[in-house]
Structures are given as structure tokens and as C-alpha cells.
Model the fold of this input.
Amino acid sequence: MIDGRLARGERARTAALDAAIVLATESGLDGLSFSQLAERLGVSKSGLFAHWRTKEELQLAAIGHAQDRYTRVVVRPALREPRGLRRLWAMHERRLADVASGALPGGCFFCNAQFEFAARPGPVHDRLAEALELWHVLLHRLIDEAIKLGELRPQIDPEQLSFELNAHQTAAVYESRLLPASRVYTFARTAALERLRGLSPTPELLPEA
Done:
């Protein structure tokens, strides 16, 4: 019976966090409230307080849940591709595909939240900064692998290229909310693809622009 209650509690917590990251892309992470979340789920606020005592705790939990989702939807599928340039490209493609999918109304939980909390010091800001740093660490690693395999030129600065790839993706998030989305995604894909093809001795590993 205890195990059953724990399992139900964990399912309820997961469902609440699924809804929380959707709501955060609709009305902002700071706009996320227990009342709003309870209304979306059709439950009482008291049930949510059993999981999180404060709004900040809920926000931090939402960030962690969004990271788990991103790992599942973007990172792990990309890592199934062959090491090197193809894996790096798959990471870019998977992120754009996730943004374009409509699974999250705002396109990307992290871009929206990072813009929102960029000038707000505190635990939420720090956790978002940590998530961004981890993303760049992953891109650096993939770029280094491609260089070691001879699929990117050895003089490339991994930090610079990581910044450029992330910049294309970030621009796609906010411009696709304001301009024709399919055109924006095409621009973001083409810009990154042409940059990587120009930096690679083996551009045939990549799709055509």
C-alpha cells in the first residue's frame, strides 16, 4: 500500500511538472503559480503544496524536469548518431525539431526562462545559467570529437563554434514566435549547415544546404 501511494504521488508530481513547463512557456516561469497550475490540472492547491512549499521550489523543480525532458527528446536521440560531425549536426537538428514541434507553446523552455531571469539574481537565475553552461559543455565535447576525427578543421575554437550554433537556435526560438515559423527554421538550419560545411574537410558527411 505504501509503495502504491508513493507511485501515485510520483505520477502526480510528474504530471504537475509536465504542465508546469508548458505553462512556463505560455506565461513565463515567474508567472507560474500554484493557482494557475492547480486550475490546469483540475486539482487543489493543497495537493501541490505537498510537493513544493514555495513558488521558487516549484520553479527549480520545473527547470530540473525541463532538463530531463530535453535529455530525453533532444540529447539522447542525437547521441545515437555516429561520433563526430554527424552527431554534432544531429544535436542541432534535434533541437530545432523540438522547437518546431509545438510540444511547448513558447518553443523552448530554456530560452524563454533565460531571457526572463537574465537580470534577476538568485537561485532560479543560477540554475538556468548552469543549464546553459552544461549545454555548451556538451557542444564543446562534440566539436572536440569532430576535430579529433578530422571532420572539423583543427584550428577551430570549440567555444566560438558552440556560441554560433546556440545563437542560431536561440534566434529561431524567438523569431519563430513573431515571423513565419517555417521560414525562420529554414534560415536557422541553413546558417548552421553552411557554417559546418565550410569548416569541415569532409562536408559530404552533412546533408546538402
Summary: The chain has nine helices and no strands.
